[in-house]
Amino acid sequence: MTKTIKKxxxxxxxxxxxxxxxxxxxxxxxxxxxxxxxxxVPNALPPHKDTCHVxxxxxxxxxxxxxxxxxxxxxxxxxKDPNVPHYTIxxxxxxxxxxxxxxxxxxxxxxxLIYLDKWRNGLQIxxxxxxxxxxxxxxxxxxxxxxxxxxxxxxxxxxxxxxFFQKLNEEKGNCFLLKECFNDVSSSKIRQEFEDYxxxxxxxxxxxxxxxxxxxxxxxxxxxxxxxxxxxSLYKKRDS
Length: 240
Prior knowledge:
The protein is α/β, with parallel strands linked by helices. It has two domains: about 5-180, Rossmann fold; about 185-230. Helix content is about 35%, strand content about 15%. The chain contains nine helices and seven strands, in the order E-H-E-H-E-H-E-H-E-H-E-H-E-H-H-H. The protein has a seven-stranded parallel β-sheet with strand order 3-2-1-4-5-7-6, sandwiched between helices. Helix 6 links the parallel strand 6 (about 155-160) and strand 7. The longest helix is centred in the N-terminal third of the chain and has 13 residues, at about 20-30.
C-alpha cells in the first residue's frame, strides 16, 4: 500500500555547489517535523543570482552524489527549465498541483528570512504554505528588515511555543522558527578555491595530491563532489 503523503518539506536553491550542510538541514527538518517526504529543488535559473554559470545538469548530478546515501531525500526537476526565472511563490503552486492533499513546508535559513520582503511576493508565501526557518551562524532575527519584523508578529511560531506541534497540522499561514543553528557556508568562497586551483594545476587525477588546495571546501564538501568538480573543471574562471 502506498503511504499517504501528508507533509512535504521543500528546500530550493542554486546548489552551486551543494554542500554537506544542505543535507544536514534537510535531514534535521524532515525528522524534527516528522515530514513524509523531503524535496530538494535545484533552480536552473535563479532570478537573483548572476554567479550560477554551472549548468543545471552538473548541479543536479552533484546533488545525486550527495544524497545517494539518503533514501528519504528526493531531488525534484520542477525548476529545470533554464529559459525562465523561477520564483518560490510559483514553485509552491507547482508542488501543490503535484501533491494536492499535502501540507507544504518551504524551508530556508535565517539569512534568507531577514530579507524575505525582497523576494517576489515573499511575504505572501505563507498564504499558500508554511515556512520553516533554520538558524544560521552570524544571522539574527533582529537583523530582519522592518517589513519582515512586522510580518513575524502575526506569522511567527517559535519552537518553544506551547502550540508549536499543533500548528504543524495547519495547512498554511505559519513561519516556524527552529532553534537549531547551522554553519553559514560561503558558496562563493568554495568556488573561489577551485578557481584559484585551476590557475596552477591542469591535471587532477588523484584527490590526495591536492587536498591542501581546498582547506575551506574540504570542511563542507563531500569528497565525491570535489572529485566531480575537478574532473569536469567546474568553477574554472570563464574567459571574458
